[in-house]
User: What shape does this take?
Amino acid sequence: MYEMTSAYKHWNKQWQSCRGRQGWTVPEPSVISLLPALKEKGVERILDLGGGVGRHALYFAAHGFKVNMSDLSAHGLDFARGKAKEAGIELSTHIADMATLPFEADFFDYVLAWNVIYHGNKRNLIQSLVEINRILRVGGFFQATLLSKNNYNFRIGDEVSKDTWVNSRVSDKAHPHYYCNEKELNALFTDAGFLIKDLEEVEQSLTGSFHWNVVAHKTSQYLP
Ligand SMILES: C[S@@+](CC[C@H](N)C(=O)[O-])C[C@H]1O[C@@H](n2cnc3c(N)ncnc32)[C@H](O)[C@@H]1O
Assistant: This one.
């Protein structure tokens, strides 16, 4: 039996070493490119959910936003706090599972979850989407990545829950990952109370590493 939401244990180990953090300290171009829209819409409060070692949280804090970062990895949060201190910028960090976030309703203007919410099965993903919807204000921005069924890892290893795969031969795939196609992604976001503004399928650093890049807004219609 697999523990569905065990991914953070892998990442917690990875974040301890310089080598493990390599490639995870520079903000993503798709995140940076949202900055003008966030400024234009008067965004103030940001949550970097599953923020890793804080590359995006630190970026936004340096740009003057009020930034919170949550993760289940204590080592990742420690590293980010240290970097914030070094740079003399404010960053609030929280140990929290993505399905139960320690924030009040309608608090954030923008939530980012880069390479985070697909860790687990479809049920776990839905729980996170509903929780993100709860803490975001109506009209607020939600930016996330999800795994595409065109990704080369889809259907490799064991299917531990529908569309959820574990490949024990690859260390960062040895815990459950959920994959979806465009239609499924649209349904997941709509059902959780989001309106998709931009959706793109992109290869991340490796050839065939297809992910969905999504930017959405919280709609006012959703009643849990
Ligand atoms: C691939 S890393 C991405 C880190 C960061 N978002 C970035 O882009 O640099 C995934 C992160 O999600 C966190 N994570 C995994 N499962 C989690 C959970 N159930 N609750 C909170 N964080 C989780 C991991 O600890 C890890 O830091």
About this structure: The first helix runs from residue 7 to 14.
